[in-house]
Structure formats: C-alpha cells, structure tokens
Design goal:
3-stranded mixed sheet, 383 residues
Length: 383
C-alpha cells in the first residue's frame, strides 16, 4: 500500500522512539484509526522500542484482520534530526500536501539541570527546530498539532494544585524553552484560524506498559528519580539516592511531585489528538477567549503529590532493594510542591489518570526486571 491510500489518518510523532513517544504511538495504534510516521534522531532512544510497539499492536489484531489493519501497525520509522530542516522536509514530501492529518510533537531536550549549562543547545533544539517544524506544517497544509509541554512552564506556582490559568514563570532554561514555544504556537493560532493546537503540560511521567515489553531506557545515567531507583535495584546504577533538600514545608521535608503513569499520559495525547477533529472543534475551542483562536493548554496529572521519600519507600517495597539515601542541598529553582489541577482535561477531554504510585512502581519494576539493561536485553520468563 502507498502513502495516503488507506482509511487511516496519517500521524507524525516526533521523538516517537523515546519513552513517552513509544507509549503514545502504541496508544494510537491500538485504536486502529491511525498510521504512524515516527521522527527520531535516536540521541536518547532506541530503535528496538518501535519494533516492540509494532509487535504489541500486531498481536492485538483480530484473527480475521484485514490487510489494511496489518499495514497500519507497521510504523514508518524515520531516523531524522529535527534540526536538519532538509531531512524533515523529505518526510513531508514523501506524503505530500494535505496527506498528513495531525502531528504530535514530543521530541525535545529535557534535562532541567543540563539546560542551564548549555542553554544555546536547548533553545536551538526545543525552540528553533520547533519553529522550522511549524513552518513545514503550514507549507504542507498540516494544521493539527498536539504539543508536549511541561509543568516546568509554571516555575514555582502560587497555587497548588496548579490550574492552567497560572502565569507562565519558568525558572529553568528547559521550562523557558517550553513556555516560549507555547507562546509562539499560540501567536500562530491567533494569526491563522486554520490552526488547531493543544498543548499538554504534564508533570512527572513514570511506569511502563503493563506487559514490560516497552519502558524507559535513557542513554547514560538517568537523572529522574524513578528510573534511577529502578536501575539501582537492577544493579545497573550504583547508589546512593541523592535527595536535594529535606527541610521543605512538606510531609517529610522532601519535595512533592505529581507522578502520572506513562500509559495514562499516552492516552491523554490520544484524546487531545482526537479533540482536534472537525466534529470536536466547538467542544474543544468554543470557550476560548478571542476570535477564531483554536489553541488551548491542558494539565495532565493526578492532582495528588508524593514526596521523594514516599517514592523511595514504595520502590523499596516493590523491589525489595535497600536504598541508601544521601541528603544534599536544595537545587535552585526547585518548587517544594508541584501538582496538577487536571479538572479541565477531565471535563473537556475525558482524561483520567487512574493509576496510583504503587501501580506505577510495579509496572516500572516489571519492565526493568525483564530488561535489566534496557532494550535488546529482555530476560526470558520463568515457567
């Protein structure tokens, strides 16, 4: 089958081979409504992830699946760097004007600490490349976009849980790249009513697909707490667990964060994409202030926070691993508490983050235990 010859919507997912991207693609494929084009430069991801996603989706097909259904689970995997505009253009040209229905933009540099040491690189990748992508979308008549933003755009918010109406006052370079990109996208929507865009501000994704076939495998030592704890228990990373600050005004003195299961997060992306369909425009954007502005931001989170020590304790129960904890000074710009107010996404998108921290940790450990060193190293099941 050639591009554009099926009844499925063609969807580009940038960063498709990454942790969040692979789960988003799986969520889309399981609906049997979409044909996926993944754009990823593999700087922090692995090709094996998309092979496994395709396998899961293929195995979910009914025994009498049509040839079109079988074709739909084959991912068009493009190894492309978004900063290479000519290479990105080739992807659009392969499908032609008007033949790509929507785009989910996940690819970005995302290490908060690193962003302050190499700010130019973060602005180049997270902002400049996004502008190039938007220009190509407009040229090829693609105006449906789901943008993966971050709770980092809020900085240290004055209200907890934090609603979408909160002013964007990012404290990190990473957070500012997301806030700037959101501003650019909103300005584009205001200038051209053809555009329809949803920005998703999510908090702390964690966990893995329940089968343990796909999960998080960062290149190098993970900076985020939960994958680091999982790799420690799998003896891939040595301790201790560095906890930055234990004198905050929280339950146990450590920072509170809103942990959302990556599968719930992926479903949020799917719901946002479907909210951009012609039949959903009034419901999605009908209450947006301003004329013909089809732009809206939603928080994706649980609305409930867990402290660093609470997370460590749950992982200790799940893994039976004795973590050594080392307390250090607070990091500049760290909010004591950061949790989402997800009410708007629940009401308007039908979004629900139903998995609790124990489920997140169990699914994460299921992935790590089966794949101690990540992709390409799946451990055989015991009978």
């Amino acid at each position: 089958m050639e591009h554009g010859e099926t009844s499925f919507h063609n969807i580009i997912v940038t960063g498709g081979a990454g942790y969040i991207g692979s789960h988003v693609i799986l969520s889309l494929l399981l609906t049997r409504k979409f044909k996926i084009i993944s754009i990823d430069n593999y700087s922090n991801s692995h090709a094996e992830s998309l092979e496994r996603v395709s396998k899961i989706a293929r195995e979910s097909l009914p025994v009498d699946a049509s040839e079109e259904d079988k074709f739909s689970v084959i991912i068009d995997d493009r190894k492309v760097d978004l900063t290479n505009s000519l290479a990105v253009r080739e992807v659009f040209e392969a499908y032609g004007k008007g033949n790509i229905w929507g785009l989910i933009h996940i690819a970005a540099l995302k290490a908060v600490g690193e962003s302050g040491t190499v700010p130019i690189e973060y602005y180049r990748v997270n902002v400049a490349a996004t502008i190039t992508l938007l220009q190509l979308m407009d040229e090829f008549e693609l105006h449906r976009l789901v943008y993966s933003s971050s709770a980092a755009v809020y900085g240290i918010p004055p209200k907890i849980p934090t609603p979408e109406t909160t002013a964007l006052k990012a404290k990190s370079v990473y957070g500012r790249t997301k806030a700037i990109s959101e501003t650019i996208i909103k300005d584009i929507c205001q200038s051209n009513p053809k555009w329809r865009v949803i920005s998703l501000r999510y908090f702390n994704p964690a966990g893995a697909y329940e089968s343990g076939q796909i999960g998080e495998h960062p290149v190098g030592i993970p900076e985020n707490l939960l994958p680091r704890l999982a790799q420690m228990a799998a003896e891939q990373v040595e301790g201790p667990v560095n906890v930055f600050g234990n004198e905050y005004n929280t339950r146990d003195g450590t920072c509170v964060r809103d942990y959302i299961h990556v599968v719930d997060l992926a479903e949020g992306h799917r719901l946002a994409l479907e909210a951009l369909s012609d039949g959903s425009l009034q419901k999605t954007f009908g209450n947006v202030a301003g004329n013909n502005v089809n732009y809206k931001a939603y928080n994706l989170g649980t609305g409930h926070g867990k402290t660093v020590l609470e997370v460590v304790n749950v992982m200790k129960e799940v893994t039976n691993f004795a973590y050594e904890i080392k307390f250090g000074n607070p990091r500049a710009g760290d909010a004591p508490t950061l949790t989402a107010d997800p009410a708007l996404a629940k009401t308007e998108l039908g979004f629900s983050a139903s998995s609790d921290l124990e489920r997140i940790c169990r699914d994460l450990w299921n992935w790590q235990a089966k794949n101690p060193a990540g992709y390409g190293t799946q451990r055989a099941q015991r009978s």
